[in-house]
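Here's what a typical entry looks like (DUF6171 family protein):
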Amino acid sequence: MKRQGPCKDCSETIHVTPEKIKAMLQMLIDSRHVELADEATSTRRLAQCASCTGYTLGGTCKYCGCFVQIRTKIKDKGCPYPLTPKW
Ligand code: SF4
């Protein structure tokens, strides 16, 4: 069987730097006027993502495709985990 190359989670292109995460978040604030969650809330959410089966090695949620570093910081976002959202 022929190898197809790295999976999405192993691809270099899916890994983003903290600077890019910050820039994407700022773009959402500027263009969509999103409000940020307080630091304690986003930290708690991120810890739940880190132990979730929906968390991918690329830093995205397999249920919504969002970067969890961004989704957890947006005040009005919720967790898309089926039936029992984690936050
Ligand atoms: S399902 Fe919820 S807790 Fe799990 S990775 Fe996605 S956003 Fe995070």
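The two ends are 41 Å apart (CA to CA).

More examples are in the samples folder.
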